[in-house]
């Protein structure tokens, strides 16, 4: 197992301070399996949504707010994490931990300057830590909620991080443009998980048991067992990304890339479908007659649900 010492891994520990329209879809085919659980996702000006897969009931859990830069629901679905701008303070933003009634539990103000501009906030599986990545200069931030301590990860051997995601055991998968690494607090040792080539890859998603991951490469979805480390392409057809594994790990929620014409550079979005996570290839595209693919639809709708950011699939 290849290891890297702290000398190759820039780390700082600092004290914390307190429109577009959907593409038409005419397929009304029933799902191949009756999926259950709740999906959480954002869409355009509707806000943050919850969809009960069993009943198809859709509800708004957070109204649309241009100051919100991301959200994450806890695994118990009893609290959620928000990343928001601070009104009247352009250079700063805050992580806000709230219960499911919207009552504030704790707030962390992100230091200004190089430590701002964060996206993809995530609660750890035990709700003890907050993880997020920044747009520029591509830092990874981890906040110990109880200890009020912040860890800042800057780069790996000079390569900037492109993403980070929690593992069930509390470790973190760290992505660069060419490789995937794994480390854990206090991040003194780093393991190389997989070296990739020059092709673009992104959107790492972890199966709930932590044994497998899915990611996007060459505009398709791939899966990899973290022990065997043999990536395999599992989607064909349209450009797609993995959004989330089902709670039991048997299915994979996929986002099919769409673009709203006339919407400008921010007109990218994804429609949602579900495919088996068995390692086989499936055609994830509109019009496919593969009965193993089911489009995610709210009750009474003939169009698949669309999202414009993070998606979670919880029990």
Automatic annotation (TrEMBL):
Q: Which domain of life is it from?
A: Bacteria
Identify the SUPFAM superfamilies for this entry. Answer: Tricorn protease N-terminal domain
Write the protein's name: WD40 repeat domain-containing protein
Q: Which organism is it from?
A: Compostibacter hankyongensis
